[in-house]
Structures are given as structure tokens and as C-alpha cells.
């Protein structure tokens, strides 16, 4: 794993208060965005992910590199709470797996991956797919959505350059356009953590830029 940015100078944020003409700085602890300790994953007796320690702090961006089958997608699924580790402890956005409501916590995570996109019905409209992120759902009829939700979903699609396809079923879009829709979905909730598994796959050169 390689970090794509430098680490912040400190672990906490500073808030400044004016008291009797003086500025008082108070250090406020900011929780790690992601924290894995001795996390491993075993399936059918095969170790897919060896015990791993990994910490992602606020404002950091990480790029995970590895050969096919090295466990990158499994790591993303664990971090996004769609897989539970076989061993170790996992903390996401200050919450510990096993001590929090995973369904609620998933709403604070933006995720785009081929494994996730394949779980959606192909006749769903692009805007519906984006809106489902509001509740970390796979079907729009499981929850009720407001006009504000729809407008925000359109803004996310516009940010990815595919707002014009909002009302079209996802199967009518090209593979690159579909990828843009799922990237838009990852932004729907203004997430505290964004996980992208091969985000530039299926995009043309312009889209990758």
C-alpha cells in the first residue's frame, strides 16, 4: 500500500476561542477515518487477506496496489462493511464493527466497485441508482425519497457529466457511462469515507483525467 498524500502534522484539530482579549487554542481529537488492527480474511480455508494493520487519517488519500487475487477487493469490501473480517478489529469513522449499526454506518461511506454495481437491476434508472445511496440500499422502493434527494442525485450525476442520462435505464448506457453513474452514487451522501475499487475501469482517457 502506498499513500498518495502526506500525513497531517497532528492527530487533532485546533479550535480557537477568544477569551478576555486572548486567543486560546484547544486541541480537539479527530477520530481516524479507518483503522484496521490484525485484520485477516479466510474463505473456505484459504487465506485471502493476511493479518493487516492500516490506519487512514482525515484528509489522507491512499492508493492500494497489488496483483490480481492479492486481496484488494476484499480489503475494500471489509472497509465498506460488506464483509466481516475473520480476525482483528475494524473501526470506521470512529465506530467499531460489532458495536454499531452497520446499516446506518454504511450510509456514511461512499463506495463504487464492480461487485456492488452488479447487484443492481439493470432496468433501474440512473437517478434511482444514485438515490439508493441515501440509505445504502440496492432498490429504490425500500425507502421514500424527497424532492431534495432527487435534486441532489441530479447534481451528483452532473458532477460526473451524465445528468442527461438521469431518466434512462442503466442498461441503455455504455460501460463508461455506467461507471460514471456509480461514481456519482458514491458522492450522494457527502460521505466521510470514499472507497473506489478500480474507479477508472471502463472510462475513456478523458474520463480518467
Question: What features would you describe in this structure?
Answer:
The protein has 209 residues and is of the alpha+beta class. It has two domains: 31-106, Rossmann fold, CATH 3.40.50.300; 118-190, no CATH class. Helices cover 24% and strands 27% of the residues. The chain is built from seven helices and ten strands. The chain has helices at 72-79, 102-106, 114-117, 126-131, 147-159, 175-185, 205-208, and strands at 2-3, 12-19, 22-29, 34-43, 46-56, 62-63, 87-92, 95-96, 109-112, 193-196. A four-stranded antiparallel β-sheet has the order 5-4-7-8, covered by helices on one side. A two-stranded antiparallel ribbon has the order 1-6. A hairpin with a 2-residue loop joins strand 4 (34-43) and strand 5. The protein is globular. The two termini are 22 Å apart.
For this entry, give a set of tags.
24% helix; globular; single chain; alpha+beta; 2 domains; Rossmann fold; 209 residues
In short, what is this structure?
24% of the residues lie in helices and 27% in strands.
Any chance you could write out the topology, listing elements then pairs?
Blueprint: E1 2-3, E2 12-19, E3 22-29, E4 34-43, E5 46-56, E6 62-63, H1 72-79, E7 87-92, E8 95-96, H2 102-106, E9 109-112, H3 114-117, H4 126-131, H5 147-159, H6 175-185, E10 193-196, H7 205-208
Parallel strand pairs: 9-10
Antiparallel strand pairs: 1-6, 2-3, 4-5, 4-7, 7-8
Amino acid at each position: 500500500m502506498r499513500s498518495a498524500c502526506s500525513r497531517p502534522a497532528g492527530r487533532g484539530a485546533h479550535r480557537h476561542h477568544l477569551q478576555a482579549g486572548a486567543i486560546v487554542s484547544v486541541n480537539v481529537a479527530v477520530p481516524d477515518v479507518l483503522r484496521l488492527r490484525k485484520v485477516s480474511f479466510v474463505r473456505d480455508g484459504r487465506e485471502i487477506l493476511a493479518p493487516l494493520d492500516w490506519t487512514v487519517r482525515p484528509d489522507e488519500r491512499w492508493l492500494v496496489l497489488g496483483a490480481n487475487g492479492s486481496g484488494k477487493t476484499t480489503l475494500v469490501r471489509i472497509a465498506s462493511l460488506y464483509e466481516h473480517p475473520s480476525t482483528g478489529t475494524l473501526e470506521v469513522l470512529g465506530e467499531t464493527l460489532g458495536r454499531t449499526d452497520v446499516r446506518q454506518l454504511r450510509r456514511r461511506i461512499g463506495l463504487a466497485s464492480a461487485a456492488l454495481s452488479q447487484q443492481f437491476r439493470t432496468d433501474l434508472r440512473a437517478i434511482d441508482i444514485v438515490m439508493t445511496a441515501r440509505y445504502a440500499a440496492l432498490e429504490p422502493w425500500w425507502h421514500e425519497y424527497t424532492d431534495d434527494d432527487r435534486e441532489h442525485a441530479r447534481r451528483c450525476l452532473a458532477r460526473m457529466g451524465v445528468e442527461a442520462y438521469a431518466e434512462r435505464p442503466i442498461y441503455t448506457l455504455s460501460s463508461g457511462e455506467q461507471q460514471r453513474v456509480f461514481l456519482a452514487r458514491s458522492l450522494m451522501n457527502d460521505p466521510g469515507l470514499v472507497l473506489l475499487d478500480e474507479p477508472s475501469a471502463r472510462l475513456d482517457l478523458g474520463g480518467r483525467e
